[in-house]
Amino acid sequence: MVSLTIDGKGVLAPEGATVLEAARQIGVHIPTLCHFEGLKPYGGCRVCLVEVTAGTRTQLTASCTYPVAEGLKVQTDTDEVLEARRFVMDLLLSRCPAVPALLDMARQVGLEEPGFSRGEGDCILCGKCVRMCHELQHVGAIGVMGRGAKREVVTPFGEFCEVCRTCGACAFVCPTGHIADIAKISGRTPIPKLSEFNAGLNTRGNIYKLYPQAVPATPAIDRDNCVQLLTGDCGLCAQSCTAEAIDYSQKDETLNLDVGAVILAPGFKPFDPSHLEVYGYGRYPNVYTSLEFERMLSPGGPFAGHVQRRSDGKEPQRIAWVHCVGMRSEKEDGHPYCSNFCCMAALKQAIIAREHIGPELDMALFYLDLRTPRKDFEKYSTRIMDQGARLIRSRVHSVTLAGHDGDLEIRYVSEEGDIQDEIFDLVVLSVGGVVTPGVITLAKKLGVKLSHNRFMDTECFKPVTTSRPGIYSCGFFNGPKDIPQTVMEGSAAAAAAAQTLAPVRGTLIRAKEFPPEVDVAAEEPRVGVFVCHCGLNIGGVVDIPDIVEYLKDIPNVEYVQANLFSCSQDATSAMVEKIKEHGLNRVVVAACSPSTHQPIFQDMLRNAGLNKYLFEMANIRNQCSWVHQTEAEAATTKCKDLVRMAVAKARLLEPLEYLEVPVTKKALVVGGGVTGMTAALGLADQGYLVHLAERKARLGGNALKVHSTWRGGLVGPRVDLLIAKVMSHPNIKVHYKAIVEKVSGVVGNFKTTLSRNQVIEHGVVVIAIGAEPHRPKGEFLYGEHPNVLLALDLDQEIAEETDRIKNAQAAAFIQCVGSRNPERPYCSKVCCTHAVENALKLKELSPDMDVYVLYRDMRTYGEREIFYTAAREQGVIFIRYHVDDPPQVSEVDGSLKVTVTDHILGKPVDLQVDLLTLASAIVPHQNAPLAELYKVPLNAEGFFTEAHPKIKPVDAPTEGIYLAGLCHYPKPLQESVAEALATSARAANILSKDSLMLESTISQPIDENCDGCAFCVDTCPFKAITLIEYMKEGGVKKTVEVSEVLCKGCGSCMATCPKRGIVVAGFTLDQLAAQVDAALEVA
Amino acid sequence: MIKNVSQIPSLGPGIPESLGTGSLNLTSCYQCKKCSSGCPLTFAMDLLPDQVVRLALLGQEELVLASTTIWVCSSCETCTTRCPNGVDIAGIMDRLKEMAFRRGSAPAQPEVAGFHQAFLTAIRLGGGRLSEPLLLGLHGLKSGETVEKIKSGKILDDLRLGWELARRGRLVPKLPRRLQGYKEIKQYLSQWEPRD
To answer: Running DSSP on this structure, what letter comes out for residue A459?
Structure first.
């Protein structure tokens, strides 16, 4: 090491380093142009001039080439130095006066205009490009030719250079933009790498993160294009990575894993419409796929959420969405199924596009059947229609160019039967999903059976079980579905695997062990502060050595240390040693965000034998270096303030008791239908005791009335089997004729009283109480004519093959009876498929029977579409009616006459039928009492509400309570069963623990200050505080009590309390006051 | 919406059998209207192609056979090519033309119907092949155009043009050679012969 002084500050620099490197080490800024880390020092541009005194001799010299030497004195900001730099800048700027980067630099040295005659070029002959090409790429595609004024960067003989790899490194290092077009060097135009994540709408580098939230959030090298991996040259990234994380020798590895179960979740790929010439995708720039449009709408997308056309960047004012692209037809390499998610995705895109562009946006959606059968989707579609979206039921024949400015024309047939030509600025093809060939190969390799449409072949009663034992599958691969359902199915597959693996649960888990904690409560605070460079994230902006020095003088600070990356494993181990070595009893880490890193450092404290609440964090990255990148000095001062505040609080920190509550390892399932029984079995098979409460005297619920599932499997025998399993399972106790009467307790420890005063203690609850069919008394002659039935009644008649079924000449179905109207603004989801299924059965029983289905939108989503197609092929006639013009039913000579307006002809048609089946809505039971008992909210229609429709689809908002089946929303058996399994996985998360660890930073009442005013009781958003009374000194004393389980430590109570009667541990008023005082102190 | 009709007669036992089954796939239709959106001749039609399909599906023969659409259709097959359900719409139009003849219903476009008939007759007389001079002659006679032209003397222009074409080998004024499978064709054609 060599010691020298730069601007009066002492520096220790490694031998062989340059003055520039030594200066940068201590944060002294010297401007450079020809210098580049990784290239040899060149000394070409001379803007890095400094004054160097070696011995008695003082000279101006380029710092980038001058080696450090013992005792050297360097001045970087004397008047001479600045004057010399200004002169050099003047020469460079005069040569290239139009280069913005030079203008910026010139302005920084106080130069506005070039002082010499203005040149025309943009190359300053810094030689970075040539050196990059020679030194790192080992290519030499360019060189410097000529002397004096004729000196220039050229290719050999001025011709296109064959050895150039078009790697772009020359353009990358060029400071002036002189080398911008590599095609001029190689004669070949480089092909930009398009961002996969942004659907190719923008480009990405060769080292990239797939997307900002990628896990792990480390960049990857695109090995197909990396010069170093392909040729062994370059290696620039390894040279610049301060963490030395780049390892070119990494190879693909084959890992052999011994597992007891496999879950397949391979997902899907959007359908590629490029070969559908009629839609013009790939030919007309303004035709987008829905995925491209999705990325364009995303605030994190290529245009930050601004909607703009590919052709001219104009914001579109008229957008058309074309539904069902590649779906619901096998023509043109399409797929016979419906992809389930795309209708809703198109509606959502319309809503968001309108938010981005403005209410004047013209939105036209060309759909076939609007398939929005999921919870709250119907209301969503009504909302977008109220906002002016035009839903046009017409499949688009072709998209053509209108004129030359990129506008597109669509010709369609309106609802009235008129041919319309309309011009749009942008067309979105709402593409469906496809299982990729790679996934099909995987399935074949694993030997699992696929369905006709190459989805996983699963049974309705075993929705995530494949044909091969031990292999489970979930998501789109099990049949098209949307996000909430895939998330739910993920949990279901986990549950199915957990059932198989129950005997070995936890055998591979290693529990974390910590040394015993030292009691430091009585000790004088000895604070240790660790300041993190976070690579260059913090260290590149603020002066960390200065901060370290500053902290040493603060009272109670015993030890200060700077780390390059504090969160790395070796750094935390080193910190543990320092804590022990210096006897530290409070620790402050000045680094990044506590929300991401606090747990790591708290574990570090526990490893050092300290209570984890003796820790405080100062966020000097997100709150300082990131947001003040251009003001290094002020940022350093702010860092000092932030750390000083943290130390002030740390001094007052006290160890807190770790709170734990034991878990009652039992579950209660309310509802003994297929859903409830499946949930109960799911938990019982995992080894937990389950109480199953059924309201009636018999298990089975609604499924007892259902004849077969949509895939055609008989329901009856499977329900019988399920009942037998439940009844014989040693871990399940069934309570018949039992309803929930009283509930107390919280997650982990509920106490529920059932009928006949049976008290059950349990850790979790699954609510699966089902729903019932709406009975539309008086509508469509229901209850007035014997041949008007409900769907489930028809099931029974078909099962029994009654005479009236066999003798019927004509039968009709009316869909959406009591659904999708203002009174019940939701779709009952199961009825379209059910009607199609029954229509097919009627046709099978008597092929000559005329069967009519009167519908509003055929919602045979996913693979169910196949049955709709089959029904049409069998001659079932489908007639679409409008909600404002429902079918009329009357009795004529004993038989039924149905009059309905045909949507294509626009004219009423009469049907004479012998049998009329109504698809009546599925309505919730009286859910309110149970909802009140378990504090689970109901939605406007009376169904239970989940915690989050997408990320927590089967959790109730209250912890430890789970929802499955019809009581959550109408759904087919298969989905109810999957939900039941999902709840068993979620519930097992709680039951598998012996105790629940709670945060100790929660509210603590201070009895002597509390006068029982109860302000806090009303304020608490978690209902964690109760008012209590007790006898004290002969009188009644009122005070409050906090539930450790419910309190989240938000501090609302503390802020409300007028008497300092309640505080949040770890955030006491004294601690906060100390922080404020420290903030106001002058540094 | 179809015009000129206020009420569709009560639905009978269904679709004409010849349309409902087989390669025409009539019943597979899910009323997406793609056929009509893509049809280049809708401007001359009284019913849109999808409405014809719908009426046929609902067994409304009278209405379908009386429409101009079945005669205006030029069998370009844009509809058939693009139909997502494989419904052969152009084939249905063709079948309906034949049905119209068989029923003897008055065609809504007599000229087209006449030409259609002349075409088939020419095929029959031509031994399974189409002879253009024969088609011209038959069509002229059938439509009454020849009589008109004789009256006005314009027939001379036609003859002169015919002579010029024949001289250059563009028109061969003799019957083509009979096809080997003529018997089958004759049998097929006779199935669809008009009853009148």
So the answer is: B
Measured between alpha carbons, how far is A130 from A138 in angstroms, rounded to an integer? 10
Prediction pTM value = 0.83
CB contact under 8 A, B33 and A872: no
Q: CB of A978 within 8 A of CB of A488?
A: yes
What's the pLDDT band for A300 if we cut at 50, 70, 90? Answer: confident
Coil vs helix vs strand at A1044 = coil
Sign of CA dihedral A215, A216, A217, A221: negative
Chain A residue with minimum CA distance to B13? A850
Choose the closest CB to A906 out of B2, B15, B43: B2
Q: Which residue has the tokens 């506005």?
A: A112
pLDDT bin (cut points 50, 70, 90) of residue B196 is very low
pLDDT digits (tens, 9 = 90+) for A763-811: 999 999 999 999 999 899 999 999 999 999 999 999 899 999 999 999 9
How many CB atoms lie under 10 A from the CB of residue A415? 15
B61 and A CB contact within 8 Å: no
**Contact (Cβ atoms closer than 8 angstroms) between residue A427 and residue A366:** no
With a cut of 60, say whether residue A1007 has pLDDT above it.
yes
Confidence of residue B20 (pLDDT cuts 50, 70, 90): low
A872, A906, A911 member nearest B27 (Cβ): A872
Task: Please check whether residue B14 touches A, CB under 8 A.
Answer: yes
- CB atoms inside a 10 Å sphere around CB A243: 10
Find all residues with CB under 8 Å of A161, minimum gap 6, and list them: A141, A142, A155, A185, A186, A187
Are B30 and A368 an interchain contact pair (Cβ–Cβ within 8 Å)?
Answer: yes
Q: How far is CA A1061 from CA A1014, A1038, A1040, A1045, A1069, in A?
A: 10, 12, 9, 20, 11
C-alpha to C-alpha distance for A575 and A608, rounded to whole angstroms: 9
- Angle at Cα A843 formed by Cα A841 and Cα A849, nearest 5°? 135
B27–A874 CB contact, under 8 Å: yes
Give the start-end residues of each E strand in A832-953: 850-855, 877-880, 888-892, 895-901, 908-913, 915-920, 922-924
Q: Which residues of A929-965 are buried (b: 16+ CB within 10 A; e: fewer)?
A: ebbebbebebbebbbbbbbebeebbbbbeeebbbbbb
The CB-side HSE value for A530 (13 A sphere, CA atoms) comes to 28
Of A1013, A998, A1001, the closest CA to residue A1057 belongs to A1013
Window A:868-887, CB contacts with B under 8 Å: 868-869, 872-878, 880
Distance CA A128, CA A973 (A): 68
- Tokens coding B108: 């809504």
Least confident of A204-218, A433-447, A485-499, A589-603: A204-218
Residue ranges of alpha helices (H) inside A334-436 are 342-357, 377-386
Which residue type, as a one-letter code, is found at position A407?
A: D
Closest partner CB to A417 (pick from B1, B15, B34): B1
Phi, psi of A16 (to 5 degrees): 90, -10
- Asked if the Cβ–Cβ distance from A417 to B54 is below 8 Å, we say no
Question: B11 vs A912: CB contact, 8 Å cut-off?
Answer: yes
What are the pLDDT digits (tens) for A929-961?
Answer: 999 999 899 999 999 999 989 889 999 988 899
Q: Looking at CA atoms only, how far is residue A454 from chain B in angstroms?
A: 20
For residue B192, the distance in angstroms to the closest alpha carbon of chain A comes to 25
